[in-house]
Amino acid sequence: MSTQAPLRIGVLVFDDAEELDVVGPFEVLASWAAHSALHPEVVTFSPDGSGVRCAKGLSLVPDTAAADVGPLHVLVHPGGRGTRRLMVDAEHLAWVRAMRATTPLMTSVCTGALVYAAAGLLAGRPATTHHGAVDELVQADPSVLVDTEARFVDDGDVVTSAGVSAGIDMALHLVARLESVEAARATRRGIQYDPAPPV
Q1: Which of 6, 93, 140, 175 is the most buried (most CB within 10 A)?
Q2: Which of 29, 86, 110, 140 is catalytic?
Q3: CATH homologous superfamily for 8-190?
Q4: Could you tell me which residue ranges the DJ-1/PfpI domain spans (predicted)?
């Protein structure tokens, strides 16, 4: 993705967001930003700029509010229990549509895809979400082409990922897209992400 302005990536935070949906991609993208010659900026923001309490109790203080975040090249919309409220929140859905109009790359983690579907962003497009939320995704928009196997689905200007830890894989893919495979591999080594589950 070429752009004259420095790359700006915004990670949305909200009450009842799943912790790893937020901090997994943030860790990858911020680690990349610290070493990249592109000098990308990674910011967190909440709807009103206030602190949020995530699904399992982690409190986060964002950098700014949605109204003040400014232009983004990439939006990361996490999932979590809070998405069920957001997907029926007309103001939030209108905001998502407005961001779609100005943001080159819209991404979601886990049930963040439900919000995108409710906003109409996934109509007729391939997408994925948490395996336990597939039925909800279909209900939100029956035209979505749901991929139940992929860790993430890249459909050009929209990238969705499966549940929770899959956001890390998606974020590494974004690094490869935005800079290079070599940069993504260096970032993966830097955070020592080399899954070999013990069970």
Answers
A1: 175
A2: 110
A3: Class I glutamine amidotransferase (GATase) domain (3.40.50.880)
A4: 8-176
